[in-house]
Amino acid sequence: MKHVIHLITGLGNGGAEGALYRLIENDKSSKHIVFSMTSGGKYVEKLQKIGVEVTCLNIKGLISFISGLFALRRAERRVKPVAFQSWMYHADLMISVYALLFFKRNVFWSIRHSTFEKAVTPLSIRVIVKICAFLSSFVPRKIICCSENAKAIHIEKGYKGSKFEFVANGYNFARLTFSEAKRLEFRASLGMQDNDFLIGNVARWHPQKDHQSLLSAFSQFAAGKDNVYLILVGRDMTGDNATLHKLITTYQVEKKVILYGESDDIPGVMSGIDLHVMSSSYGEAFPNVVVEAMACETPVIVTDVGDAAAIVGEHGIVTKPENVQQLSAAMAQMFKKSADKASWSTLGRDSKLWVTQEFDISKMINRFAAIWSGPN
């Protein structure tokens, strides 16, 4: 069986990490080995549980970086991989150093990010992107990108356009499905009644996710309505987050916002809410959470960032980023539409049909395999 060695910046709870995990878990034609440049993370244990060899390099300086290069070298000599696949910018740079040192041509990068606002993008990332733009002409065989929007942005940054291959994220839809039992359980745990309208936002606490616009829009939409609520699910979505708590207080929605924290049961969350809103203002490439919601027959509102609009197609509402009035109006429109139960159910079913046809995991696996085995 052929081997693939993956190098990723870290294995925490993120979109690239999730895509890597789904690829490996469902690919039965290759043996995968994973190296993480950092230590720990949600997906270390998850990968090990399915029998994947995982090595955390814990790179903190030059010595550990060099040690990591030789760890890759030992693995290469042992398994003779058909491909080295890197994930995210730091890993793209490290695998490039490895390729230059040991004259490797079977190297593939992965792009998982789109925009680079100076106010929020660290200088180190912007420097690495400039270096990778230079290296892109002669180091990677191909650059695999999950977003057409991100592809265009990176080409503008100087990346070699002919090296890009678009591969949409893939999902195991057997695990992403609506469950009436989970809906009832989730809502009961919150004290929600069946006629309460529950809007969800699944996202970590980060400026990119623009919770401020979300809360502002929700406060306008919820004014005068007794049975509408917003639940925030994700890392740091807790009462300990002082900045978030201040925003909730500022918009006077303390009695309507539920802080849920992280959840490992995304199908349960999506089944339990009535509408999912992605409010990101920048940086998204291919937002997984949109597909996850639609796969669970949950109608969606998204901001027009990355490939979000393409994912939704005709099955949701797309608003401009940071446009509070549009976002609030979209919530009101969806709330009104939900009153017609038959129409609302049809929207959910059509959403699921759309994403299952477009983003099945088998398509992603086949595309990666074809790229890895393609010509130099």
Automatic annotation (TrEMBL):
<protein>
    <submittedName>
        <fullName>Glycosyltransferase</fullName>
        <ecNumber>2.4.-.-</ecNumber>
    </submittedName>
</protein>
<keyword id="KW-0328">Glycosyltransferase</keyword>
<dbReference type="InterPro" id="IPR001296">
    <property type="entry name" value="Glyco_trans_1"/>
</dbReference>
<feature type="domain" description="Glycosyl transferase family 1">
    <location>
        <begin position="184"/>
        <end position="345"/>
    </location>
</feature>
<dbReference type="GO" id="GO:0016757">
    <property type="term" value="F:glycosyltransferase activity"/>
</dbReference>
<keyword id="KW-0808">Transferase</keyword>
<dbReference type="Pfam" id="PF00534">
    <property type="entry name" value="Glycos_transf_1"/>
</dbReference>
